[in-house]
Amino acid sequence: MLCLLVCAMNANAQHRNTQSRYIEYQQYQVNKNYTDSLVAVKEKLDTMETASADGDEAVVLDGRFYRLFAPLTFYHSPARKALRMNRQAGDDAVNDEIDNTLLSVYLERPDLVVNSESHLRKVGGVNNEVIVPIQQDVELVDKAEPSEVESVEDTPEVDVVVTKPNFWTIKGDYFLQGLQTYISGNWYKGGESNYSLLGSVTMEANYNNKQKLKWDNKLEMKLGFLTSKSDSVHSFKSSEDLLRLTSKLGLQATKKWYYTLQLLAYTQFTRGYKSNDRRVYSDFMSPFNLNISLGMDYTVEAWKKKLTGTIHLAPFAYNMKYVGRRWFDENVWLPTRYGIEADKHVLHDFGSQFTIDLKWAIAENIAYQTRMYGFTTYGRAEWEWENTFTFKFNKYISTKLFFYPRFDDSTPRDDHHGYFQFQEFMSIGFSYSF
User: What separation in angstroms does the CA of 324 have from each of 34, 170, 305?
Assistant: First the structure.
């Protein structure tokens, strides 16, 4: 019962508020119409100019005629004069004539009456004292001479240059870092001296027309070498070797989602060895991976754009693995180490793929970059997760910590790690970004 009473009170309050706003609006509209009509009458009177019989001076314009020009209003004075017992004309003949004219209109065309004097007094008042409009005496102080208009021939020619918008963004990141360890032959704990050098170049060329189309291209090149006295077979061997191209063509679906066609291709520069082992474990185009996927990209922008990147989800993907080198040793066909059948060089697969590529500015001089890639045919799977921490000392000097786990069940199973593989290094040296 109490609930019904509260609802009824709220309904009555809303009805009163609506009615009050409607009355205020009606009052405002009447006042506005009335004011606009007075302005229109004033403009008409200002354009009328009469002269006296001798023509020496202008006749003062009479502002009392506004009632004939304004929207027809029911005034009290015409009815009061018509109903009074004494019908003698008043002292003001002009007002008597105006009242008689209005009265005849009231009687013959009452449908033209749109307002009343009582309503006007309620919303703004009626000023009966305004009889003669205020006239301003304006003295001509100085007469300005017309300025000379420059001819078209004197106007200097202006070259108009129209530049096309540049939708391309070019950026890059370079670093060259090394690590040196020296241990004397009589060091009480033993150990081995070694040297390592790592160089990396990352270049990006991205197109975005700020409407629907986006095309991102990234080329990554990494190459590192190390030497150790314990390796009597190789004077140096590669510790990091990567040549990878990522190209994505996107058509905008929503603010942050894009329909995307992605091409991913990667291989290495040089041969891959192990210490004191002459066999070649990998080489240029051995293996070479090509992945083409169709899906959607999500643009990541979080924490005031400190975390940025993309997430690519592709339910349809084609993967080609190619191994050009033939033999691992005299008895082993190298492509078989990468899941390819003997006497063949190419493996074609269809499945699903995802790629997560993010950058996080943890602090002013600390940054974290991660890339996670996965592909599955629902019969076998590849997964890799690259993690790079960068600590900047200044604009040119930095140190990097790299951790890289990987899973691939198409390769031979290891007794200790299974199908998982790991790589990790830390380096310090020169770096530059633009």
Answer: 94, 34, 43
